[in-house]
Amino acid sequence: MQGVRGIWSDTGMTPSETSRRKTGLRWQWKAIIPMIGVLLLGLMAFQATVLALNIPNGHWILIVAAAGAVTICFVMLTVLLLLIERPLQELKETIARVREGDLTARVDFAKRSDDVGQLGRQFNEMIGQLAENRAEIERLHQMEMARAEHLATIGELSARLAHEIRNSLAGIAGVVNVMGKDLPAASPSRAVLPEVQDEIKHIQTILNDLLAYAKPRAPDFHRADLNTTIEQAVFLARQQVGKKPIEITFQPEPDLPKVVHDPVQIHQVVLNLLINAIQAIEGAGKVEVTLHKNGEFAVLRVADTGKGISREFLGKIFKPFFTTRKEGTGLGLPLAKGIVDSHGGKIEVVSEPGHGARFDIWLPIPERAASHAKA
Q1: Is 206:161 a contact under the CB 8 Å cutoff?
Q2: What's the pLDDT tens digit per position in 312-367?
Q3: What is the distance of C-alpha 303 from the center of its chain?
Q4: In the Cβ-directed half-sphere of 242, how many Cα atoms lie within 13 Å?
Q5: Structural contact between residues 23 and 113, judged by C-beta atoms closer than 8 angstroms
Q6: C-alpha angle with apex 169: 168 to 173, nearest 5 degrees?
Q7: What is 222-369's CATH number, 1.20.1250.10, 3.40.109.30, 3.30.565.10, 3.40.50.1820?
Q8: pLDDT at 369
Q9: pLDDT-based confidence at 274, cuts 50/70/90?
Q10: DSSP code at position 256
């Protein structure tokens, strides 16, 4: 391979240019030259015949012209049949084989040294490239299938473990509550009970998110008002603000038609983004929620004035268990992305440290978003 590259670099030509340089006579010349030769030979033969038979001048000219025309037509048909018709027929048959999936098919006229042969060589190279691409696609498909199977196994195992741990944790939480009631009021152990209970709740949240991520519920698609779905999430998010100086605004899209979606799941996505935005704001700030129509999509935007996300983390925020917050589970955004994907939409994020973050959720308005949607 190195030697081939060296030759190309020395000559300064690409492979296609080298192929064109090696091309011999064009097929048009191959068709014309035999006709000229036959015509000349015919003229010489007829002239010798006329001289031998002593035919008058007026007659032999007509004879030569007629015989020459017939000969030229015959030669032309023969040459066109050999140079054009056969390669075209072979090309059609080979294309039919390729269409049926046989990527080992090749044309034999690629061995010719004219431009028709060059066409054949380029066709064979194209089929060879298609074969390589198909092999690579099949290899990647097998890898993806193996990866999907592996992830499915891990997800099933994680779901079982999370379920068992959650049951045991519920028992532990009950015991802690009983112990808290039995402890004397002056006992120093009472001071750590709230911390223990908070940690138990944190673990329960992680387990619940893990179960939701490992075994997500199938969306319940039906037509519903997306403005109402978002407004309910905004209302709950305002309750989370408490006494913090954070303002949450919502600008609906009154002209938006009913969108096929799962209101419960989209509500979960919006609420998750709003809670993240609230937690990202230190001190006073603002969260703006807007909904508008863009072509065949309803675009939901959640923008905050928080601390933002660094560029090195932007590519990781949708990966499971990645979080920059101590209290975070790292599953909220992956769950949100999975829900949006199941709706046939997409989620985008733009952020700069110190300039807040903006999440855009694109949900398709047409019913193609959910072929099994309920009317």
Answers
A1: no
A2: 888 888 887 777 766 666 778 888 898 999 999 999 999 988 889 999 999 998 75
A3: 27
A4: 7
A5: yes
A6: 125
A7: 3.30.565.10
A8: 44
A9: very high
A10: P
